[in-house]
Structure formats: C-alpha cells, structure tokens
Amino acid sequence: MSDIIQLLPDNVANQIAAGEVVQRPASAIKELIENAIDAGADKIKLIVKDAGKSLIQVIDNGCGMSVTDARLCFERHATSKIRKAEDLFAIRTMGFRGEAMASIAAIAQVELKTRRIEDELGTVVEIEGSKVVNQYPEAVAAGTNILVKNLFYNIPARRNFLKSNSVEMRHIIDEFQRIALSNPQIFLSLHSDGNEIYHLPAETLKQRIVHIFGNNYNQRLVPVEEDTSIIKVEGFVGKPEFAKKTRGEQFFFVNRRFVRDPYLHHAVMNAYEDIMQAETFPFYVLFIDIDPARIDINVHPTKTEIKYEDDKAIYAIIRSAVKRSLGRYNIMPSLDFEQETSFTNLITKKSLDEIIAPTVTFNPDFNPFDTDKSKSSYSRSDSYAEGFAKKTGGIPSNWDSLYEIVEKEESVQLPLHTGSELETDRPQAIQVEDKTSSKLFFQLHNKYIVSQIHSGFILIDQQAAHERILFEQFLEQLDQHKGLSQQSLFPQTIDLNPADNELMKDLLDDINGLGFQIREFGKNSYIIDGIPADLGTGFDEIKMIEKILEDYKNNQSEYKLAKRENLAKSLARNAAIKPGTQLDNTAMAELVDKLFACQSPNISIYGNPVIVTFTLQELAEKFGKN
C-alpha cells in the first residue's frame, strides 16, 4: 500500500490559513493598516470600493521595503517582527505571525508598490492566488501602497457568504474606529466609493473620540488614570446617564492592541453597579499597558484574545480605577460630612425684622350654597365678566354658556378589595364605563389590564400587547410600502456618526415605507419632515430615530432577524405605550380588541407571554377551597 500522507501545496495551505486570518474585507483592512503602523507611518489613507469587495487600498508613508523584502513578505511565516521564540514574550508590534500577507495574496489579486526613503527606485509586485505574476522597478512615493482587488475571487463559495455592502461597510468602519482610537497620534482617513467618511488628524485621545463619535461625546467623558506595579490603566469612560442598550462602544486595548475580554468588561460593569439602568452598557475606551512577559497574545490568529498571568489582580485594578474616577468627578453619589447642616444661611439676604408674614383675606359673607348671586360679593359676573367687559366694551349675551358643565354619565366603581385594607395597597381600578364598551376592564398599577372571562379572569401586559399590535401593523405596511405619514410642523435635522449613517442608508427606504419622511441632507445628516400617523403626537423625532437604530443594532446582534422584521420590531418597541400610562376603559377595550385580532396575540415580539389566565379553580385553591 502506498503512502497516503503528503504535504499540501503552498497555495492550498495559504487558502486554508486565510480562512482564519481573512474572514471578510474588514479583516484584510485590519492586517494591512497594522502593518503600516508597524512600519512607522504617521499618515495612513484607506480607500475601499464596494465595501472592500472590489478594491482595498492602503497608502502609508512608512519605512517601505527593499526589493527582496517586497517579494519575501508574501511568503508564509515571513516577518520582520520576531527572530526567535523568546521574542514572543516581548511583543510590542501589532503583527508577528507572518501569515496575513500570504493569506491575502492567496485569495485576491494584489499589487504592491513600495520604496524606502534611501532608494531612488521602488518595487512593484503583482500576485494572483499566491503566484507572482509580475515584478519590476518603478518610481513610486516613499512608503508602501498596496492594492487588494477582487477579494475571494478564486473562492466563490466564500465570496457568496459576504453580506450586503452596507453590512460589510459597517464592519470596516468598526475596525477603522478601533485602529483610530488606539493610534490618535497618526493621521487616518477613510474613503468609500469616492466619498470621504473619516478625516482624522493627529490629535489627543479625547479629540479623537469626539471626532469619531460626535461632538455630543465631549461632555460625556470621564477620564480614568491609574498606575500600579502590575498594569497602567488610562482612558475615558462614559457617564452612566448616557449608557445605551446596545453594545459596540466598549473598547479595551492591551499594549495598544484591541482585545475582546468579557472578564475585564465585567470589571467595568461592576464599577457602574447601582448607578446605571439595568441592561444598559456604558461607553469606555481603556488602555492597559502591561509587561509583554506577563501576557500571551499568541492565542488566536486574529490576536483579539489574550491570556494574563494574574487576571484577578487586573480585574480588581480596573474595577477600582473606574469606580474611583466616577467618584472623583462626582458621578457616583457620595456623602459630604463637611456639608453645613444648619439653617443660618437663608435664601433671602434680608434681616428677620424686615420679613413680613403673608396674610390671608377672605369674604365672610361668601356662601357657596347660596344661589342668590346678589348676596355674593365675588361672582362670575363681578370678576371675569366685568373684566372682559372692560376689555371688549361689552358683555356677550351668551357669556354664561361658557361655564355650563356638561353632565356626564356617572362612573361606576367596582372595587377589587373590601375590608379594612390600606388605600395605598389597593390596585388602581379604572372607574369609567362608557357606552362604547359592554365590558369593564381594570388597570393594575398602570401596567396590566384585567378582564373577566367565563372561567376566571385574564391579565394582559399592556406594553407587550401594544408592541404586538404595532409590530404586525408595521410589518404589513412594510410589505405594502403604504405607511401613512403625518407632516411635522418644524422639520428636524439629525446628525449621525459614520457607522449609523451607513445603517441609515440601508434602512432609509423601509423607514420611509413605515410613514416617516426622511431625506439626506449633506454628509451624515438627514432631515425629518414627517413621522408615521399611527405614532400620534408628543414624540421627539430625533430621539425616536436614534432609538430605532440602536434597537435595530441590538436585535441584529442578539436575534439575527431579517431587516424588515427587525425594523418593525424596533419601531414597535419605541412607539408602544410604556408602563405607567393610565388608560380609560375605552382605550383598554380597543387595545384588547386589536390584540385578539393579531395573528399571535399570546406571544410578545420578544417571545414572552402577553396574556396570563387565572381560572376559578386556581383562585379557589389559593383560598383553601377544594
């Protein structure tokens, strides 16, 4: 029997390695920009077309490469970062594996132009599928200019797994933001399909944060700084009142390298305990500087996971540093034992002798039960009517009809409790039964609706019920693209960051299909001319759009929903009535009728129960009656 084990060809091995290193265009961009940073560049320009599917171009002014290095950099495990195994425990550069360039060249058409400052001519290398097609000298600018064309052109199955351009562009922006945050001293720019998305000059970390996320972040940041013998922590955290329900604005950098670490994230969340709303996530950009010998970054090819020598101590330091900063800048509540508690400092600066006590005057002859208006010195005719007559020159003949009280149907109160219970312990009952509804509903704590049925009673979560109604209604409008719109009296302008702007472009047609009237207005700006008529009034259009985008991103990461279903769910969540909203009997009856007309009335849009049924048998068992 012949031998069956053999070495794979280099091009096959490189394609296999590319599956771990280059997962999408954003992965290739990360590797290329990190190489430019390691080359000492202080100006880096990124150009993409079709969200990186057609073209990725990175131009830097780094040290450049010689003719030999330009050819050798595309070989597997060829790197300038390390020389021996011991160097793995003293890594300060972004890359060190020597796999990225070989992996990219195996799945794309690559053109490299590079020149060192001391050289007169540079080198051009053209590679397709790990095979060198051409190499020749050429006069090029100092530094490196690398073009990656038609990513995954020789792996069509992998290319088909790529998402839409808007989704891939958001991944590119995420990677670009991480690199920009970790290197504020470097000029960075991002161009997509001829449009400049980012133009970030060399600046401080706080300025870089504001330029990336918006001017409103300038007042949200709290500085963090702690230097110990184990690690040094510095950066910024967000104020708790600006925490969001979605993840994505949490950044940890270890030795300037972005990492994902749930353990350290928990340390930050622990520092915010009791000062932030539940299920919200604060903004933070934290840099950890640690001796490379104390960590191991050779865990995964993407280099976003790190093993620590003493993770418990790092956890405690980060938690204490964040908590201390929040307390230092008066974010956390604190007790001031030096506060003056006496009442010597009055509001007024007048002396006590000059203060005159207020007096109360009344008409002793006033009798509210006396129908004779002549006996009352204060009547409608003597007050409002006479004043009106002085202004208009006369009293209208039918002026008293303005004060006629329309007789309403007496309300019917059906108490749920009897006996000597405290009034504060009684559930709130809606007392009005109008002619439009034959059933009487009760509202408990302005959150739940109680309705009697033949076998007992049902309890309905009013917010979940309204969300279900709106969700199915919005889904139908999206299918028909016929959402009714209500024109805004004053159009509002909303400014988005580049990441949200890409999402808005992708959703704009569907959002307008729901009844919104939104149009683009310059770079990253939109004008809101109208909102869906079903939303009614009293909504802040800008906050509504921001919450819809936030919930959309949260649903996308947690539930992996289709675009239209996700959008309908996000709008329904923000447009539905909230707990604490008081409803009259007519509103409750209408809500219940619409709920039972839905396709899935029993299940909320997030899979939780909407209706809970209590039978008479269950009630009897509660009272010990079998």
UniProtKB/TrEMBL annotation:
Protein's name according to its UniProt entry: DNA mismatch repair protein MutL
The UniProt family comment states: Belongs to the DNA mismatch repair MutL/HexB family.
Q: Does the keyword Transferase apply?
A: no
Cited SMART domains: DNA_mis_repair (SM01340), MutL_C (SM00853)
Q: Quick check: keyword DNA repair in the entry?
A: yes
InterPro entries per UniProt: DNA_mismatch_repair_MutL, DNA_mismatch_S5_2-like, HATPase_C_sf, MutL/Mlh/PMS, MutL/Mlh/Pms-like, MutL_C, MutL_C_dimsub, MutL_C_regsub
Q: Which organism is it from?
A: Sphingobacterium ginsenosidimutans
Q: Which gene encodes it?
A: mutL
| All copies of domain DNA mismatch repair protein S5, residue ranges | 209-327
Give the Gene Ontology MF terms in alphabetical order: endonuclease activity
Against Gene3D superfamilies, the record matches this protein to: 3.30.230.10, Histidine kinase-like ATPase, C-terminal domain, MutL, C-terminal domain, dimerisation subdomain, MutL, C-terminal domain, regulatory subdomain
Say what the protein does. Answer: This protein is involved in the repair of mismatches in DNA. It is required for dam-dependent methyl-directed DNA mismatch repair. May act as a 'molecular matchmaker', a protein that promotes the formation of a stable complex between two or more DNA-binding proteins in an ATP-dependent manner without itself being part of a final effector complex.
Location of the MutL C-terminal dimerisation domain: 440-583
Keyword field: DNA damage, DNA repair, Endonuclease, Hydrolase, Nuclease
